[in-house]
Amino acid sequence: MKHIISPLDFSVKELDDVLCLAEDIIADPKKYANVCNGKKLATLFYEPSTRTRLSFEAAMLNLGGNILGFSSADSSSAAKGESVADTIRVISSYADICAMRHPKEGAPMVAAKYSRIPVINAGDGGHNHPTQTLTDLLTIKNLKGRLNNLTVGLCGDLKFGRTVHSLINALVRYENIKFVLISPEELKIPAYIREEVLDANHVEYKEVSVLEDVMPELDLLYMTRVQKERFFNEEDYVRLKDLFILDMAKMEYAKDDMLVLHPLPRVNEISTEVDNDPRAVYFKQAEYGVYVRMALIMTLLEVEKPC
Ligand code: NCD
After folding, report:
1. Sign of the C-alpha dihedral computed for residues 275, 276, 280 and 283 taken in this order
2. Helical spans, DSSP H, in the chain
3. Which of 226, 231, 264 for mutating ligand 1's site (highest number of atoms within 8 Å of CB)?
4. Tally of CB atoms within 10 A around 170
5. 69 Rama sector, left if φ>0, alpha if ψ -120 to 50, beta otherwise
């Protein structure tokens, strides 16, 4: 039985297989309408979510399966003090697979230890978000045509942004990837990512604090929201939240085929005027999230691909 706690739980080959399956689903979704008949997905969300939870649920429903779950810690027995270990022991007999989002780093990993069904990490604190990474990779592969030879700008909250941490972990395994890390001093990438992921894999990167200066060199710009819920005080959040705002004036500096991605939700970091630029693909990216989660559920449940 396989769990997905980090993007590294898949080899590059396994990851490519999931992306290929997602592409086949996009090409002919009807073919997959009944492959998970009788199967149940539990969504255990201890933290707010729109896209991740609903795209998981839509994915299972599209496959002919059923869904159950909770969307906040308050509405679950966590509010009474139940541990993640006890919850998952019980859910294991109610569902065939589960997706868990939790504010504590490592909670889905603990769940996996006690679980009798595959556990998918749907975001654990400021740590990892592997299914967002699958979504990002599918978007890049489809809209850019490749996962190698890319200069990738990551902008905003690189300290607390779990989507950024997971995406870096996944992309360093492809050929000739360069990173441009754009953030204020206080929100720079954590040292463990710099040392254990970037340096350890001899990946080229630079850290800068002005977005305009680096725009012309980017193939992709991955914008992120400043993660308000992970700040210790409101004052720091207010000071940092609007430092990077992508608008059409900045887009002028970008290549004609640079893509703008964002895991969403967007707050102020991308001006709505950018939405109409063909290079802005963040809503398409959210759509891809459903297909890639369909492919992931099928893979973890070892469901045969229909002919
Ligand atoms: C992200 C998350 O939860 O980390 N959202 C998502 O799943 N698409 C990004 C964010 O909340 O900023």
Report:
1. positive
2. 12-27, 51-62, 84-91, 107-114, 130-144, 162-171, 191-193, 211-214, 234-240, 248-251, 282-300
3. 264
4. 22
5. left
C-alpha angle 156-129-95 in degrees, rounded to nearest 5: 150
Same domain, 101 and 20: yes
pLDDT at 1 over 90: yes
Compute the distance from residue 208 Cα to the ligand 1 centre, in Å.
23
Query: Residue 110 belongs to what domain range?
Result: 7-128+288-300
Q: Are 102 and 83 in contact (CB under 8 A)?
A: no
What are the tens digits of pLDDT across the range 46-67? 999 999 999 999 999 999 999 9
Q: Give the model confidence (pLDDT) of 148-198 as tens digits.
A: 999 999 999 999 999 999 999 999 999 999 999 999 999 999 999 999 999
43 and 176 fall within a common domain: no
Interior CA angle at 246 toward 248 and 203, to 5°? 120
Whether 1 maps to a domain, the answer reads no
Q: Tokens standing for 228?
A: 């308000």
Q: Do residues 82 and 161 both lie within one domain?
A: no
Q: What is the pLDDT of residue 269?
A: 97
Q: How far apart are CA 109 and CA 114, in angstroms?
A: 9
Distances (CA, A) of 174 to 11, 158, 207: 11, 21, 20
CB 150 within 8 A of CB 140: yes
Confidence check: pLDDT of 283 > 90? yes
- Ligand 1: nearest atom to the Cα of 286: 8
Is residue 87, in this structure, part of any structural domain at all?
yes
Residue 62 lies in a domain: yes
Residue 183 Cβ contacting ligand 1 at under 6 Å: no
| pLDDT tens digits for range 97-142 | 999 999 999 999 999 999 999 999 999 999 999 999 999 999 999 9
The reported pLDDT for the residue numbered 232 is 83
